[in-house]
Amino acid sequence: MAGAAWQYTEADVKTLRLAAAYFRHNLMSAMEYRFSFILQAVGMVLNDVMLLFFWWVVFTRLPSLRGWDLTGVLTLYAIVAFGFGLATVVCGNATRLAHIIVTGNLDYYLALPAEPLTHLLVSRMSLPAWGDLVFGLAIYLLITPDSLLRFPLFLFLGALGAIIFTSFAVILGSLAFFIGNAEELSRQGWGAMITFGLYPVDIFPLAVRVVLYTLIPAAFISSVPAMLLADFQWPPLAVLMLFTVGIAAFAGLVFRLGLRRYESGNLVTVRG
Amino acid sequence: MTALVTKYVTIARTNARQQLTYRGEFATRALSMVLFMGVFIALWTTAFDVSGATTLAGYTLPAMCWYLAMTETITLSGSRVFVEIGEAVRSGDVAYTLVRPVSYPAFMVAHSLGHSAPRLGLNFVVAAGVVLVFVQTVATTPAGVAGFLVLAAGALALDALMMVLIGLLAFFIEEVTPAFWIYQKLLFTVGGLFLPLEFFPDWLQGVVRLLPFQFISYAPARAFVAFDPAEFAGALAGQAAYLVVTGLVVLAVWRYGRRRLAVHGG
To answer: What b/e readout covers A154-163, taking b as 16+ CB neighbours within 10 angstroms?
Structure first.
């Protein structure tokens, strides 16, 4: 039993080392084409900044929306951007899982001795997502008066958001094991997650709010962490942490179940 | 001249047919429209509710929802030909287009319009359906619908030229997607996609009314919900002016890029 526990820890350490090695390698590759990398990241920062314009105009007309003012919405944007950025910088293949399965490219990961899901997720880095990451950090530090005090909490909540987003993307992508071409469905699903995540959950009617805490759990990557940063309480944090663990475990389960149904694409490719 | 127009109309029609071939994917994309309209309707219902006002910046809640349905109809119908052009420029494949009996930028504009036209129809029906279900009021007139369709055609043509221009930027920068993001967000903001221009502070309205972006989002949607002949004529003239200017810029960039191809090609 003790031996099994030891083996499990060792496998975990190996997986973490693999993820760290991929991160370093992907970053070095990106730096090889420095101008393109910086252009994409800066472009994304500008893209995110311009989205705030909408809320600035809205709040010149209205003092607040069901308890959300401009600072609250900016905090929400900061946490969503940081969480999404972190998810796709580290796990750049999360949103491409359905494509990888459908095209038979999963074979490559199955043939190697690393845990296939983690290996697949970390083997790509989204370069524009660095812009989201920087934007999230910068906005949070700029707009919140006591941001430095709560900065560790911001990082922690952002990391939870990143795990939720990645897990949700894995669940959507794994649908390709069961229904065939799920690329468009997967794209629509995580698009919905981001779209809903950029609005305070309280503006939606009850039925939609239920969906945003369950089927499309956008509230857990946006409104819940933003509310925790504004007014910290242990019970919502505990719920958020439980949800994160639950959805990550569920994503792993769905992927493993799907893998049993996977038929090789017999794709012959050469990879460097 | 007729032969020239027929050539590009045929290109557009071929692309439109191609769109309709993949009906499943074509229809799935309509889900985005349902999603965006659902979010906007919820947001503005709350905003009107919170403010207690019957109009905000001159718009009633139904007018606001219809306005957003029309801006989304146009935006979600736009093509992304810049990706194709960027790839062709980067890979050098663009050189092969030089021997064809068509102008490459004009070919891509026709290609883009063929892609957009069927989507405009589908998006219009879906957006109208969603708004009707939630708002149960029609905030337009027959003149408004006609005005919208005319300006929407101009908007898609202007958008297609912008897409070609962004794609041709690949002659100068390696990755053109950031340029698209900026353009897209300009449409979202100063183009009036998310908010009618009447919501902006006066000083800002003065500036954004001079820019081309409002002719792609705001002007057609405004014609739909509050048709005014003078405003319509002004929007039409503005679109025509920007079509000419953008077209000339596209031609200039293409000629410059083609010369660079001749120097470095092989």
So the answer is: beebbbbbbb
The count of other CB atoms within 10 Å of the CB of residue B240 is: 14
User: A43 and B179: CB-CB below 8 Å?
Assistant: yes
Most confident of A32-41, A99-108, A152-161: A152-161
pTM of the model: 0.88
The complex scores an ipTM of: 0.84
Calpha distance A159→A221 (Å, rounded): 10
Question: Cβ distance A126 to A91 under 8 Å?
Answer: no
Q: Which of A47, A58, A196 sits opposite B185 (nearest CB)?
A: A47
Cβ contacts of A35 on chain B, cutoff 8 Å: 174
Do B58 and B205 meet the contact criterion of CB atoms below 8 Å apart?
no
The answer to whether residues A15 and A109 touch, using CB atoms and an 8 Å cutoff, is no
Q: What does the alpha-carbon distance between residue A162 and residue A221 come to, in Å, rounded to a whole number?
A: 8
The residues spanned by each domain of chain B are 2-264
* More reliable by pLDDT, B221 or A62: B221
**Which of A94-108, A156-170, A247-261 is predicted with the least confidence, judged by mean pLDDT?**
A94-108
**Which residue's entry shows tokens 């190697």?**
A112
Report CB contact under 8 Å: B50, A196: no
Q: Does A203 touch chain B (CB under 8 A)?
A: yes
Those residues whose C-beta lies under 8 Å from the C-beta of residue B89, and which sit 6 or more positions away, are B167, B168, B170, B171, B257
Question: φ, ψ for residue A224 (rounded to 5)?
Answer: -65, -55
- Please write the tens of the pLDDT for every residue from A154-187: 999 999 999 999 999 999 999 999 988 788 889 8
Contacts of A138 (CB under 8 A, 6+ apart): A45
Put simply, the answer to whether B42 touches A204 (Cβ < 8 Å) is yes
- Mean pLDDT per 10-residue segment, chain B (266 residues): 82 84 73 90 94 95 97 93 93 85 93 93 95 94 97 98 97 91 94 96 95 98 98 98 98 90 56
Query: Which chain B residues are closer than 8 Å to A175 by Cβ?
Result: none
Rounded Cα gap, residues B114 and B98, in angstroms: 22
B175: which chain A residues are within 8 Å (Cβ-Cβ)?
36, 39-40
**A54 vs B contacts (CB less than 8 Å):** 188-189, 194-195
Pick from B43, B175, B184: which is nearest to A203 by CB?
Answer: B43
Q: Is B227 helix (H, G, I), strand (E, B) or coil?
A: coil
Whether chain B has a CB inside 8 Å of the CB on A199: the answer is yes
So what's the pLDDT on residue A267?
61
β-bridge mates for residue A68, sequence order: A65
